[in-house]
Specification:
The complex is a heterodimer of chains A (460) and B (379). Chain A contains 15 helices and 23 strands. Chain A is α/β, with parallel strands linked by helices and 460 residues long. By secondary structure, chain B is of the alpha+beta class. Chain B has ten helices and 22 strands. The chains are: A alpha/beta (460), B alpha+beta (379).
């Protein structure tokens, strides 16, 4: 490749793989940095050897095809792939990453396609810090990626499509599912049903999950009002409260989360405008229809640009790559762009409907008991947050962090940030938007202090 | 018609210096109003390294530092809450003979100011702190120095000032200043017009800009010291550590986190945004490993920077304006104001209310920049 800094793609999930393939096909040789050893990200992770059979059938063929195409392009040198490479800091000129042997390397970049994905939305339930409690994605990763179950009898708590998918995958994988308890009401799902018809594939997948669970006679509770995880030193059971009664289920593991949160650290480091979205009650980085950000040469794709599922994520990666090619003055097939736009609009409608069907239980979150830990890295309880908010008249989440240490630990507030803001907003009677969001500070992933910088950056 | 508010002293800037001044005035029942355009402690005051040391300071700062050290010892009573000040001692390390000579010279000179340092040989260093790197040239230990938590300190001063009757307006910028018959008239963003007899410029990095509003010129540079913190490690590093020359500061808090300071991030005084630099952080870590090799096992989880003003001689500007009656400056602390700030507030209150202070400010006065400043008092 001719001189000058490379085009860099961060993330090799569905969006990053699609962006890489699109750019490689146009003759660019993008550099792809990804924290995992293999391509696929969270959504399209490669199954463990021998563990693929029945589980893969719920994922479809798209994931496998995308991974194989990516690996083929990397093998033939048309993509410059850096696996196990975690980006820790980013400026408008350079980026820094920790590589597989723990060295810190850096490179200048000419254009960036950011595909950092999403993480699961945690709502701290009583008992959620007990050993044996995992996220839905964590349970799914163990099952798919390593062909192992996190317990003999697992309770699935939370809301969202992943709740049902992960539970069904465990049934198929031969694991006993104690209960599926969803805070969303059936009514919401029924109201959203017509809009979900816009995406037959996702709807079909959802219905298959329900069927798998019914056939296995798994207890299913919807419209759940309270959830608690019980046990002494380890998970022993869960208590689920519905409108009518309280239920108890014995189990030795819990998988729980409440949807996904866009990862905005990378765009935030570049000062890409980030705004509060009232409908999803969360923060989003602004991108245009063609996935350009307000920062020239920087594109955002995948879940970080909007939670629409893995298939849509791949389409946004392709769209972002086409925008990049357009901006380089390369010819781009207009019909392809139109087709992409239409497909993405359909996915967006479906995603909005899913958002309404599986809303975050905001009241449950705002009213977390005082003794429940919100920030587990620093062991900060909801009560401590409320107390600091009152004593210092705190009306902003970064100030609450300074006073309580909430969000100062290893995860840097990725998990507790949204909950802490909600608790603070409720305690002070202010808007969730006014409570703000935690500032992004590098390194955005932990940096081993033994690292030795590669002089001048060896990547490019 | 906009609202009008009268007060005795208007303080511009809600860093630790401004908040400490508000508290000192409020304790003496003097009506005061502090205006901060962000939140109190938003910049370097709230996010600095947290060193509370006299060792290594310019001698001109020592009278103030001695007074401040006495105040740190009873700070919890003064502000009504623990600021996590601990007199852990401050150990300064020499990496070569030149640095050792520097430590020895300072220890000798500081005796005049009653600051006692214990000079230590390489063997004594490793006997006392076995985790120190072998091969250091020597060290100097000041047992009375220590460290505190800056995240808590400024909000605590602000809260105490309010409780004593001081007024604090956050989220408002001063947009214009002029002389009035009473003293000063200030316009603030979305707020009342303010009349005050006395004006305190505690605007940190923006000190020269506020001075300019009052018609005075000062030099000054905007800096953003670079800091980082690790995940908890077993609590071993009790003293606050520093290198004698440019290099690194390291301290550990009892919960286990290790804090590192050294070098600079980047700052933009216009947008008031700053950020740490990974290149600086990596250099800081390399330097820290040279003095404590075990730190190679730490995991860094966050870095940050805060905007701070620096004067050409690395000393703060403290005292009455040479030209504008009723105007007092306290800015440009050049990266080491956290420790001094409680005393700066106390001294300013004395200068304002009594016309003099027993604490010497020799060498720190605004007059030292006089030849460079062309004064044109706005009327």
């Amino acid at each position: 490749m001719s001189g000058g800094p490379p085009v860099v793609i961060v993330g090799a999930g569905p969006a990053g793989m699609a962006a890489a393939a699109t750019l490689a096909e146009a003759g660019l040789r993008p550099m792809v940095l990804d924290k995992f050893p293999g391509p696929g990200g969270q959504g399209w992770r490669a199954p463990a050897v021998g563990g693929s059979g029945p589980l893969a059938s719920l994922d479809g063929e798209d994931a496998r095809r995308a991974r194989e195409r990516f690996l083929e392009l990397a093998r033939s040198g048309r993509i410059d792939w850096y696996p196990e490479t975690t980006v820790i800091d980013l400026t408008r000129e350079r980026l820094w990453a920790v590589g597989p042997s723990g060295e810190v390397d850096s490179t200048a970049w000419s254009r960036l396609v950011l595909c950092p994905g999403a993480i699961e939305r945690i709502v701290p339930l009583p008992g959620w810090t007990l050993p044996g409690v995992y996220t839905l994605g964590g349970a799914q990763t163990a099952l798919k990626g390593q062909a192992c179950a996190l317990g003999r009898r697992i309770a699935f708590l939370g809301t969202g499509p992943l709740l049902w998918l992960a539970a069904a995958q465990h049934v198929i994988g031969g694991v006993e599912v104690a209960v599926v308890a969803d805070t969303a009401r059936l009514q919401g799902l029924l109201v959203s049903f017509p809009a979900l018809l816009a995406n037959r594939h996702r709807l079909g997948l959802g219905l298959r999950c329900v069927r798998v669970l019914r056939r296995a006679r798994v207890p299913v509770l919807r419209g759940v009002r309270a959830l608690a995880i019980l046990g002494q030193g380890h998970v022993e059971g869960v208590r689920v409260t519905t409108r009518r009664r309280e239920w108890s289920f014995a189990c030795d593991a819990v998988a729980t989360s409440f949807g996904l949160v866009r990862q905005l650290q990378l765009p935030d480091l570049l000062d890409v405008p980030i705004r509060f979205d009232r409908e999803s009650e969360s923060w989003l980085a602004e991108v245009d229809d063609a996935h350009r950000t307000a920062v020239p040469g920087v594109y955002l794709a995948g879940d970080a640009a909007g939670i629409r599922g893995a298939t849509a994520a791949a389409l946004t990666g392709e769209r972002a790559a086409l925008s990049l090619l357009e901006d380089l003055g390369r010819p781009v097939d207009a019909a392809r762009c139109v087709r992409l736009r239409k497909q993405l609009q359909r996915h967006a409608r479906c995603a909005r409907a899913l958002g309404r069907a599986f809303p975050l239980p905001s009241a449950l979150e705002a009213e977390i008991a005082d003794d429940t830990i919100v920030c587990r890295c620093e062991a900060v309880t909801a009560g401590a947050l409320r107390e600091a908010a009152r004593a210092f008249e705190v009306d902003e989440i970064n100030r609450a962090k300074a006073l309580t240490r909430c969000g100062m630990g290893r995860c840097q507030g990725r998990f507790c940030g949204p909950t802490a803001a909600r608790v603070l907003a409720r305690a002070r009677g202010i808007d969730l938007e006014a409570a703000g969001r935690l500032r992004t500070q590098p390194p955005i992933e932990p940096l081993p202090a033994h690292v030795r910088p590669v002089e001048g950056g060896s990547m490019a | 018609m906009s609202e009008r508010l009268e007060t005795e002293v208007l303080i511009v800037g809600g860093g630790l210096v401004g908040c400490a001044t508000a508290l000192a005035l409020a304790r003496r029942r003097t009506p005061c109003l502090l205006v901060e355009r962000d939140r109190c402690g938003a910049q370097a005051s709230g996010v600095n390294y947290g060193g509370v040391r006299r060792q290594g300071r310019a001698l001109a700062e020592l009278p103030l530092a001695n007074r401040a050290r006495r105040m740190w010892g009873r700070l919890a009573r003064l502000v009504g809450h623990d600021s996590e000040f601990r007199a852990t001692g401050h150990l300064r390390l020499a990496r070569d003979a030149a640095e050792l000579a520097r430590l020895e010279r300072w220890a000798e000179e500081a005796r005049r100011f009653d600051v006692r340092c214990e000079l230590l040989s390489p063997a004594e260093l490793t006997a006392r702190w076995p985790w120190l790197a072998p091969g250091l040239a020597g060290g100097s230990f000041c047992a009375d120095d220590g460290q505190a938590n800056p995240r808590l300190t400024t909000p605590l001063f602000a809260r105490a000032a309010r409780e004593q009757g001081g007024r604090i307006l956050e989220g408002r910028a001063v947009t214009a200043l002029e002389r009035s018959t009473k003293g000063f008239r200030a316009a603030i963003e979305n707020g009342p017009e303010i009349e005050a007899r006395v004006l305190v410029n505690a605007a940190g990095a923006w000190g020269p800009a506020v001075a300019a509003l009052a018609g005075e010129e000062f030099p000054g540079e905007v800096i953003a010291p670079n800091m980082l913190v690790s995940e908890p490690l077993p609590y071993r590093i009790i003293p606050n550590l520093g290198t004698a020359g440019p290099g690194v500061y390291v301290r550990q808090v009892p919960s286990g986190s290790v804090l590192f300071g050294g070098g600079r991030g980047v700052a933009d005084p216009v947008t008031r945004r700053c950020r740490p630099l990974t290149s600086t952080s990596l250099a800081t870590l390399a330097e820290a490993r040279r003095i404590v090799p075990d730190l190679a096992r730490a995991t860094i989880i966050r870095s940050w920077a805060g905007i701070e003003g620096r004067m050409p001689d690395d000393l703060p500007v403290i005292g009455p304006s040479p030209r504008v009656p009723g105007l007092f400056h306290a800015f440009g602390f050049s990266g080491h104001g956290f420790m001094l700030a409680p005393a700066v507030g106390a001294v300013l209150a004395e200068l304002i209310l009594d016309g003099h202070s027993a604490t010497s400010l020799a060498g720190l006065e605004p007059t030292r920049f006089e030849p460079a400043s062309r004064v044109a008092v706005a009327t």
